[in-house]
Amino acid sequence: MKKLTCLMMIAFAVYALQSCNSTPKDAKESADSLNKSKDTTTNVAATGGIAVTPKDSKFATAAAEGGIAEIELSKLAQQKTADAQIKSFAATMVTDHSKAGDSLSVVAKKKNITLPNTMDADHQKKFDDLNKLTGADFDKAYVKTMIDDHKGALKLMRDEAKDGDDADVKAFATKTAPIVQMHLDAINKIHDSMK
Predict the structure, then answer these.
(1) CA dihedral in degrees (72, 127, 68, 52; nearest 10)?
(2) Cys-Cys with 49: which of 24, 40, 85, 195 at CB 3.0–4.6 Å?
(3) What pLDDT does 94 receive?
(4) pLDDT at 72 over 60
């Protein structure tokens, strides 16, 4: 009974402290925060702690958020571009990142990891900035964004595949890294053809 009371007091204190924070969190920050509060390897039975290390849960939230951003940015590209190569690439992004997101969701559910469900603030700003552009200006900015994002995603996947702790999370990264590499190769080819 004392343990339950103590846990309730701690939970209330954490809630109170978080509600005092006037800066709103984006979906990724919220998911990371929830995962951090669930990450209680010393008291899993009482808290329903996550089944992976904090490093692996941070990878999962970053991968999910990146995938969401790729989908949303590519849906925008499908609407705004007249370039057939970019339109085709964007369609591939929506399909492949949706499949990867579904696979990651299965792993996250199994491991009790909370994933974000919307873009983070940085990607929302990129989306808003891209949405203001048209024609060749949009195409160039979208291609640059895809190159930068895929370079980051590839590093994220390779690092997790190499150094991750959880076998299921590592397997996801190992399976996804070659797909991200193909995307990077494809967008670089598009970039080179635009010169």
Answers:
(1) 180
(2) 40
(3) 98
(4) yes
Which pLDDT band holds residue 49 (cuts at 50, 70, 90)? Answer: low
pLDDT of residue 91: 98
* 107, 175 Cβ separation under 8 angstroms: no
Q: How far apart are CA 95 and CA 90, in angstroms?
A: 9
pLDDT in tens, 7-20: 344 444 444 444 44
For CA atoms 160, 165, 169, 170, the dihedral sign is: positive
| H-helix or E-strand spanning residue 67 | helix 54-80
Work out the number of other CB atoms within 10 angstroms of the CB of residue 38: 17
The contacts of residue 7 (CB under 8 Å, 6+ apart) are 46, 47
Cβ-proximal residues to 137 (8 Å cutoff; 6+ apart), any chain: none
